[in-house]
Design brief:
Shape: globular
Helix content: 10-25%
Distance between the termini: 29 Å
Structural class: alpha/beta
Largest sheet: 4 strands, mixed
CATH superfamily: 2,3-Dihydroxybiphenyl 1,2-Dioxygenase, domain 1
Strand order of the largest sheet: 1-4-3-2
Order of helices and strands: EHEEEEHEEE
CATH topology: 2,3-Dihydroxybiphenyl 1,2-Dioxygenase, domain 1
Length: 124
């Protein structure tokens, strides 16, 4: 086994697929096979995440929506050019949470929010 799959919950899974697609993610599994996507997994390089709605999964606790009072998870997505990615997302109307900045450990990072408010850190 050894697989870990973080799941990002979204108000609109199809909008999430489009957003993460702009960051280089490709759908590798979807449910259902046709029509609007209720759940999918997307891959970016060696990384994979799930994208799903807010519906409950039988036998599991309901997902909690992100709020201003806490950010337990940040997704780091590595891109070829942080500045160009931020500008492309800005042109698409995505709100920029933090502008690109160089970090002491050598990465250049910025932050945006996906269509449901999840923090996504862009890094290079």
């Amino acid at each position: 086994m050894g697989r870990v799959l973080p799941i990002v919950h979204l108000d609109d899974v199809m909008a999430g697929v489009a957003f993460y697609g702009r960051l280089g993610f490709e759908v590798v599994y979807r449910f259902p096979d046709e029509g609007p996507i209720a759940f999918c997994t997307v891959r970016h390089g060696d990384g994979e995440i799930g994208l799903g709605g807010w519906g409950e999964t039988p036998g599991l606790p309901a997902p909690v929506r992100p709020g201003d009072d806490g950010r337990a998870v940040q997704l780091f997505v590595y891109v070829d050019d942080v500045d160009a990615t931020v500008e492309a997302l800005r042109a698409d109307g995505v709100a920029i949470e933090a502008e690109p900045v160089d970090q002491p450990w050598g990465e250049r990072v910025a932050a945006v929010r996906d269509p449901s408010g999840n923090v996504v850190v862009l890094a290079r």
